[in-house]
Fold each of these.
Amino acid sequence: MALIELSQLQVRFGSKVAVSGADFSVNAGETFSLIGASGCGKSTILRVLAGLNRDWQGSVRLFDNALTPGMRFQGALRRNVQMVFQDPYASLHPNHTLYRTLAEPLQILKEAHIDDKVKTALQQVGLPADALQRYPHQLSGGQRQRVAIARALLLRPQILLLDEPTSALDMSVQAEILNLLNRLKAEHGMTYLLVSHDADVIAHMSDRAAYMTDGVIQRFYDRPALLNGEHRMT
Ligand SMILES: Nc1ncnc2c1ncn2[C@@H]1O[C@H](COP(=O)(O)OP(=O)(O)O)[C@@H](O)[C@H]1O
Ligand SMILES: [Mg+2]
């Protein structure tokens, strides 16, 4: 079953066409990736699917429901699609402890057993419980990205949008985070839409991928093509 279905998606910023007629579907349980040079429109597609960019044309379906341009994500839709950004330092509030960062989304949704859920989320991403009183600047880059992943997982989303989640990290830490993401995906039965400019990351993580230039999807790769390294030729 397709959880994400884009048809003729177009996004403009003034006269600039950032995404032009993008078509693809992502099936439940898949990791589908977007590859392409900086500025080709990858993040823009993720931002539409996260409800962060509401000005678009075409057809977008999430969980078999049609979105409409301008629509705000609420309720189940909001919980079910979470995004992890490239730079965990920018996406975490510098003056909030990890406890506050993780507890706040649950408080807003008036959830029960918040302390337990926060501790479990921290454990799942391999951070010690005593980290809860720390601030982002007291963590390494890899630890910060673990916190950002924990925060995204707290709401138990079905879809995780991963926008260059490891490109700000050292190589060794990158591998740890990617393995963590794969383990969490298997444990929670999630579906990933991943953006990366790193061909190794794409080959390691993806079931399928699409290559974009200048807002246009040029071609798709299935798993055999990715294993063959065909995506490295571009
Ligand atoms: N908020 C915005 N306002 C104006 N132009 C934007 C905005 N966001 C993205 N763009 C432009 O849209 C194009 C695609 O950007 P983006 O999706 O961020 O690319 P990528 O993630 O592939 O690097 C780029 O030319 C970028 O400058
Ligand atoms: Mg981007």
Amino acid sequence: MKDFLKNRKILIGITGSIAAYKVLEIIKLLKESGAEIFPVMTEKATYFVTPLSIEISCGNKVLIDMFQEPLSHIELAKKCDLFLIVPATANLINKYACGIADDLLTTTLLAFRGPVIIAPAMNWRMYKASQVQKSIDYLKNIGVEFVGPEEGCLACGEEGIGRLVGAEKIFEAVVSALTEKDLKGQHVLVTAGPTRGYIDAIRFITNRSSGKMGYALAKIAKRRGAKVTLISGPSNIEPPEVDKFFRVETTEEMLEKVMESIDSATILLMAAAPIDFEPEKFYNTKIDKNSINSISLKLCPDILKEVSKLKKKPFTVGFSAEAGLNTERAKRKLREKSLDMIVLNDIIQKNTGMQSDTNQIIMLYKKGNKFFEEKTELLPKEEIASLILSKIKELKVGK
Ligand SMILES: Cc1cc2nc3c(=O)[nH]c(=O)nc-3n(C[C@H](O)[C@H](O)[C@H](O)COP(=O)(O)O)c2cc1C
């Protein structure tokens, strides 16, 4: 269970768009993260999604009519931490920009003084209307955050910009808006996923790394205000929104990209699992299975070793996948590769390490000549990422 929104109160405004049913998925994500949701619907929204569904999924009474509970607009505006409008119609955006307050939603919105996030959804013709664009520009100028819309197939059958963005993106915008930006000013360089060593045009050696741990680190670092560069080997999962994203295949390519980006990085998180050895010879064709008996291997470049040779290095964290939580090998790596910290995870234990959504780690670091070890509980990888980043912050800049 991720508790990123524990004790947070979120106002959700739902307006009359065909995409209104999608709000149910967003409510689910917000609730799973511990938020309490207070829903307000426009009268037109009730044509598209039933108040009953909204009320049941939020677990709080849905308000529509301004006179249903007089002063609810002020009470809601006072007690909530964030106002999310999803989906937002052209009508709502224009009304909010003009300060119109003619129903409960717009009145509450005008009274609300905290962060506002708007996720628009409409046909591209409406979205591109100069009135809508002018309202969006004005609202952005006064600090309102917009998520989307995106390009794609619209409900009316046309293609274009106007689709509501995915639930995960809206969820991330909410969590990010409510997260302290304690890594602002840091440039975090993260490597993630496996690498490949090609045998021939279609066959390669790799490992089971999924990229989940590195992606979680990049996502949480971004959420906490850092500039993030993510260098990823092949992974099937959707990368998080970061400042720069590079996709690589081989360990050599990963090394090259790390070296290209390292100068401006203040923190390097080597969460990737580059293969240690690769075929000595590459056949630029498909090898006939009868023509080969064995494959000779050679060592790949050791990225951390190369980084350790640099004069000016960021705060460098290595990740060590070990069979069992024996810290001796990790300590040796910490010393030999002059790391600032090493994160050790067990590849044998169930629900930890490669491919798993959860992890249990030991963080190892040195203060003076003394080694320190901190073992975490078994937690979702995003929470593990949070703990790692907090520890780095503490070691790098002090508490
Ligand atoms: C079937 C249908 C779908 C609609 N979808 C949208 C939409 O996706 N976005 C939008 O801005 N307006 C859409 N509208 C128009 C709005 O419902 C209309 O502008 C309404 O006045 C919005 O009211 P509200 O902003 O108070 O909810 C749609 C209308 C209909 C009949």
